[in-house]
């Protein structure tokens, strides 16, 4: 019996003229993601992509697992390939659906006939096949409203397909279809979630992280690299920039009033991020900020940070509660890494009484009392880049 995976496109089915570009991008993303698992032929027709495994030893549940994390997909399922012949469809279904139907109590049949040359119409397929399945599995009853199992029969161009599961896809748009943006990735809970949310909207992510040795440990950086690696499951390849930030932080400490440390530090982070973003064709920055979460995330503080930004800053967590952010971080499996204990550079020289309502002119005056430019340039020059790619 031959099994394939059917992939139903998500929102991009609505994109009219761009549809082909979106489809091509999604197909490319899928092929890259499953290539390490064996040989496949991927073809698309009628808003569905067929993943046809060419080797016998391919682990299809691993394929489903990987494809389930690719953005741009509404639903996917494993399906059994049949001849376009009603008897063959029924025979194959008995065997293919034996496990699920043996355990279920209620079912219904759902037929989709895109090949109008097939001699039976959809309602007829449902009726006839329902009857045959009842004969074969007499413990079952039909429930059209709320069945435990929906057996779907699809009559398409070259074959018919039967399946009983429908797995929800990751949704969103294919990564890369919305351009690239630079994610300020800390070791915390919020920023990996922010990156994931933007990748979901088709944004290809690059990541930037600031380290302050010896105040921050090497393990803190390794933790962020682990987060990057985890994100590649969803986001594809990620260029990771690591910025040496110690000298700038020490300069802030030596030359600026303590109550402004954090905001000035964040303004300099943004400055560096947008310079590196420009070199890597990123059109926006992304952070994990959420209004009111900490002193540097009040609206007044965010306004002071934004004042140095020349490109848009996306903050997809901005209106979310911590509990909601945590829920996503568990779902995308970054939570356990994020909650490892190592220090982040943000906690170095934290002011005892940070200003929650800073005024931009005070911040600018404090920052202008020292020429940070040479240190900014030096940090940009000494930034190291690594790439993370999808697991082999
Ligand atoms: P997170 O959970 O993402 O660390 P947070 O609630 O701890 O966020 P802050 O520490 O104020 O908040 O950081 C706000 C945002 O600034 C982070 O979400 C992240 O985008 C960015 N950021 C903070 N520290 C770093 C860092 N060391 N490297 C890169 N980006 C950082
Ligand atoms: Mg943090």
Explain what you see:
- This protein has 392 residues and is an alpha/beta fold.
- The protein folds into two domains: 3-171, VC0802-like; 180-388, HUPs (Rossmann fold), CATH 3.40.50.
- 39% of the residues lie in helices and 21% in strands.
- The strands form two sheets. Strands 1, 2, 3, 4, 5, 6, 7, 8 and 9 form a nine-stranded mixed β-sheet that branches. Strands 14-13-10-11-12-15 form a six-stranded mixed β-sheet, with helices on both faces.
- The two termini are 28 Å apart.
- The structure holds adenosine-5'-triphosphate and magnesium ion.
| Average pLDDT for all residues | 93
Number of domains: 2
Structural class: alpha/beta
CATH architecture of the largest domain: 3-Layer(aba) Sandwich
Uncertain parts: none
> Which radius of gyration do the C-alpha atoms yield?
26 Å
CATH superfamily of the largest domain: HUPs
What is this structure, in a nutshell?
By secondary structure, the protein is of the alpha/beta class.
Layout of SSEs?
Elements: E1 3-9, H1 19-34, E2 40-45, E3 48-53, H2 60-67, E4 73-82, H3 86-96, H4 98-103, E5 106-113, H5 122-136, E6 141-142, E7 149-155, E8 160-163, E9 167-171, E10 180-184, H6 190-200, E11 204-211, H7 218-235, E12 238-244, H8 246-255, H9 261-279, E13 285-286, H10 299-306, E14 313-314, H11 322-331, H12 335-338, H13 360-368, H14 373-381, E15 384-388
Parallel strand pairs: 5-6, 5-7, 10-11, 10-13, 11-12, 13-14
Antiparallel strand pairs: 1-3, 1-4, 2-3, 4-8, 4-9, 7-8, 12-15
Bound molecules: adenosine-5'-triphosphate (ATP) and magnesium ion.
């Amino acid at each position: 019996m031959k099994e394939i995976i059917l992939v139903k496109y998500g929102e991009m089915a609505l994109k009219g003229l761009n549809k082909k570009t979106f489809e091509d991008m999604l197909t490319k993303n899928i092929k890259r993601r499953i290539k390490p698992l064996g040989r496949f032929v991927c073809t698309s027709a009628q808003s569905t992509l067929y993943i046809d495994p060419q080797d016998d030893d391919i682990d299809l549940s691993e394929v489903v697992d990987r494809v389930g994390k690719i953005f741009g997909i509404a639903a996917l399922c494993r399906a059994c390939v049949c001849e376009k012949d009603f008897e063959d469809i029924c025979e194959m279904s008995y065997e293919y659906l034996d496990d699920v139907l043996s355990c279920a109590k209620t079912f219904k049949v759902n037929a989709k006939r895109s090949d109008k040359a097939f001699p039976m119409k959809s309602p007829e397929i449902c009726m006839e096949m329902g009857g045959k399945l009842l004969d074969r599995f007499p413990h079952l009853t039909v429930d059209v409203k709320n069945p435990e199992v929906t057996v779907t029969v699809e009559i398409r161009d070259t074959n018919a397909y039967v399946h009983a599961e429908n797995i929800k896809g990751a949704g969103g748009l294919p990564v890369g279809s919305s351009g690239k943006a630079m994610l300020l990735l800390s070791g915390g809970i919020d920023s990996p979630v922010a990156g994931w949310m933007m990748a979901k909207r088709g944004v290809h992510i690059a990541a930037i992280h600031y380290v302050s040795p010896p105040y921050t440990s090497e393990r803190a950086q390794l933790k962020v690299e682990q987060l990057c690696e985890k994100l590649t499951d969803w986001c594809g390849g990620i260029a990771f920039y690591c910025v040496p930030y110690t000298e700038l932080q020490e300069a802030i400490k030596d030359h600026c009033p303590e109550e402004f440390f954090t905001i000035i530090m964040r303004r300099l982070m943004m400055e560096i991020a947008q310079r590196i973003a420009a070199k890597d064709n990123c059109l926006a920055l992304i952070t994990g900020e959420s209004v009111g979460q900490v002193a540097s995330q009040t609206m007044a503080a965010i306004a002071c940070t934004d004042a140095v930004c020349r490109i848009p800053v996306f903050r997809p967590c901005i209106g979310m509660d911590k509990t909601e952010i945590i829920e996503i971080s568990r779902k995308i499996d970054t939570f356990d890494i994020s909650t490892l204990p190592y220090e982040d550079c943000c906690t170095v020289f934290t002011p005892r009484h940070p200003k929650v309502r800073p005024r931009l002119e005070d911040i600018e005056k404090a920052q202008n009392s020292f020429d940070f430019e040479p240190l900014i340039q030096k940090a940009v020059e000494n930034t190291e880049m690594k790439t993370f790619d999808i697991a082999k």
